[in-house]
Amino acid sequence: MKLLAGLLVVCYLQASLACYCSLDHPQKKYCTADYAIRGKIITKENVYQHVEPTTKAPVENEPTPPMVRFAEPVGFGGGPVGVGNTPIDSKRPIAIKYFVRVEKIYKGKDLMTDKKVEIITPPTDSLCGVVNLEVNSVYLLSGRKWENDLRIETCGWIAKYDDLSRRQRQGLKKTYNNCDDCQIQLCYGPYCPSKQEGLCMWDSSGLYEDCESKYAHCMENKKGKCIWNGKSDYKACKSKREAEKEARTPKI
Fold this sequence. Notes:
Number of helices: 5
Number of strands: 12
Order of helices and strands: HHEEEEEEEEHEEHEEH
Shape: globular
Structural class: alpha+beta
Radius of gyration: 22 Å
Strand content: 25-35%
């Protein structure tokens, strides 16, 4: 059975190694994912590496068994999750498997072969595993396919469906599908240019209200310019943000 052999490689790294994800707008996470679904978690279980039992008696001065080298899968950032030589420990999980009832497919219909699918993730959050999904809860799950496995990681867009804003739900159904015309570019606070050719600038500083993530999507307008497009709630959020910026600006 092939079960994402690449997960094995990182299961035994020291706990001090943490998972690092780039900050991305929901639309970008949607565009870089192979699939995006609304699904209800049916069951959750740990997956262990099967090791054949042995009755061989230990031999004095016998050489240490060779380490097992595992392949590395491609992660969300386009690079390997990890690689190395690790001994097999059948008592430690190599992955977490979620059984999910698919309620809505937003992307990747060809990957959803049934109304119930298995989705796997690394076994700990330090390895970018999504370890805390609740059984009987409904989530937005976006992820990648590697070999025959659907997988999710913390770097993808994973959220309780009820926590999504109205505009984010609309984005999943339609407006986030524009993935090629414009790109979303991170910038920081006062260093954010208002306009940049081919780009929608997104302030990732966290200094002010993040109106773009909650209420807007990046698109090309009729003039060929990349803009943030939103409805009245986006405009109200921007007005509130501008008032906050003005209030924080020192008066001379």
